[in-house]
Amino acid sequence: MLSVNNLSLIKNKKNILKGINANFCTGKIHLLVGPSGSGKTSLLRCLAQLEETYSGSIYYENKELKKLPSQGKRKVIGFVSQAYPLFPN
């Protein structure tokens, strides 16, 4: 299970996420729905550990992701963007 506890993210002095709590069960499909600018991508970036300045905690199988070494993070979570930011072509 992936658990989010009191997750907040501030960027450019603006609250992007504030006090998010959620549980995502292994083997289930979850859907994030909201208008443009509501923080869906920011939440996913936090879950994938692409945002490191968030406060709160994210656990996968009772292990806090922020405390895992980089290789440990890569083993438990990944992120596929709708854009292609890794390759310019």
Brief write-up:
By secondary structure, the chain is α+β, with helices and mostly antiparallel strands. The chain has helices at 40-47, 70-76; strands spanning 2-11, 14-24, 55-60, 63-64.
Description:
This protein has a four-stranded antiparallel beta sheet, with helices on one face. It contains two helices and four strands. It has helices at residues 40-47, 70-76; strands at 2-11, 14-24, 55-60, 63-64. The chain has 89 residues and is α+β, with helices and mostly antiparallel strands.
Task: Write the SSE topology.
Blueprint: E1 2-11, E2 14-24, H1 40-47, E3 55-60, E4 63-64, H2 70-76
Antiparallel strand pairs: 1-2, 1-3, 3-4
Provide key terms for this protein:
89 residues; alpha+beta; four-stranded antiparallel sheet; 2 helices; 17% helix
Large-scale geometry: globular
Low-confidence stretches: none
Topology pattern, helix = H, strand = E: EEHEEH
Helix content: 10-25%
What Rg do the Cα atoms give?
A: 13 Å
The largest pleated sheet is described as: 4 strands, antiparallel
Structural class: alpha+beta
